[in-house]
Amino acid sequence: MTFGRFWPAFFLIGLAACGPGGFSTSDDAVFAPSVDPRGEAVDQLTVGHRLMAAGEYELALSSFSLAAAEQGLTPEVLMSLGSANLALGRLNQAEDLLRRATKDAPDTPDGWNNLGVVLIEKGETAEAAQVFRRAFALDNGESVAIRDNLRLALAKLENSQYTAETEQQYKLVRRGNSDFLIRPTQS
Questions:
Q1: Which of 45, 54, 109, 177 supports an S-S bond with 139, CB 3.0-4.6 Å?
Q2: What is the CATH number of the domain that holds 139?
């Protein structure tokens, strides 16, 4: 009997014995927990908002897509999908989704604010100013973020001779679950 024929079998048995529990199961299992069939499903919108807060925009987009499959394309789901696309820099997709959300729920200031952010990022300052005005009116002027975005859009509209250097001095800052603010960067 030669060792050459059986060396793969000995090798695999040796590897199995190298695990933390040897040939038996380990008590300190690092495996995923089992599924409880009686458990309640987690709301994917909530999961998505938590992922957005953690800066995990791709995962949040996946979670919002699952919410769309479960709940349909409600205005809240559309706004969440648009916000995630905005955070990922996908401005055209974000604009389409946010326009649909504001059409379906025209009284939501956050949707109008995020649409304004998309428009100002795309360089459509005049329309962005109108959208921010609408968001400001719907919010009764209570949101500082919307007020600051409106001020920036109006200032940019009045002084339309921005140079490329001036335009790069602004950055997008996420506040809350789906609220964005345009801030000047500190030089």
A1: 109
A2: 1.25.40.10
